[in-house]
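User: quick one, fold this
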Amino acid sequence: MGLRAYIDKSVSPHFHKGGKYERFYVFYEMFDTMLYSPSSTTRGPTHVRDGIDLKRVMMTVWLAALPALLFGMHNVGYQANLQITQFGFAPIPGWRTDLVAAMVGFDHTSLIANFLHGAAYYVPIFIVTYVGGFIWEGLFAWKRGHEVNEGFFVTGILFTLILPPTIPLWMVFLGISFGVVFGKEIFGGTGKNFLNPALVGRAFLFFAYPAHMSGDAIWTAVDGFSGATPLALAAAGQLDYGVGLTANAASAASVDLTWMQTALGGIQGSIGESSTLIILLAGVFLAFTRIASWRIMLSVFLGMAGMATLLNVVGSETNPMFAMPWYWHLSLGGFAFGMVYMATDPVSASMTNTGKWVFGILIGAMTVMIRVINPAFPEGVMLAILFGNLCAPLIDHFVVQANVRRRLRRATEVA
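Assistant:
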């Protein structure tokens, strides 16, 4: 109450109409509504009464992403500490590892040491993302003369979780800037973008700086370490799926990695994508609260499972990825994360119920096709979702037109 009273009495008047900082009101409002609910109420005679608004939707998604964030920080530290303590790799030189070494060291069996080492990499990414995003959101809102929308609240957290931990911070700023400006603001801002801004930013970084976004050396924060991700191992035929489907049995036994390990987490990958179990639990929560569409999540899964099964039946003597079962596709890479958090974006996804099924199946099937048939690109969910975003308006158009024709036939039959 004391802070609220101080803001209302000593700070707020300077930013409202007539105050000396009136033209910067949009920035004041942005931070004020981050701390407190808006004080303004509906004045018109006709409005919708509801217990949820944009801010609460964004807060719910943010809270659903928090477990993946916390597990991701721990896993980043665990992967680094494991290589340092067991295999003798050196920490990456810099203030991050100096801080961790001075405070807790690099014991991979210590929860605190793992969490702090991971936080030393994640927290700077988080700060740079939100500072960069809010700068662009504020500038566009200021220029257009409206308040800053809460849409970036979710875009920012999702963007940080789909990055490798070793990405340079200047690249983080560049990626989120591209995502916000070219993925959303030039189309009108929150609610008007037809592409997922977080994925637009990551796609830009992937194609502009591929050495920092793919390969074997970017996923573990130690100096000189290089280790293939599970998807890269699968592409090389070095995973044993345990069901007699492995295309290259001689090399499949060379890597000791079980499906349960990939489902629970503790493997290399982007910061927030390693634990499929945590992500799926978040998906159940988002579906239960009706924030995310269960139709989209289920249809993405069905599209993936159907295409993976079809390719298993077709088989290939030269491409080991044809042998990967659907449940491995689910737990490897960013598929689960994309299915729960990215494909369900209500702005860039299909709006109609029938369209959501088509939209989701398209994304799931395309993810497997990109992973399996394109040997140079073992991960495919990012491109599949962006392609689905492009097709969403067309899908809804055909669904609406089909409904119109069906109702016209019914009207004609009744007449």
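User: anything notable?
Assistant: Residues 244-254 have pLDDT under 50 and may be disordered.
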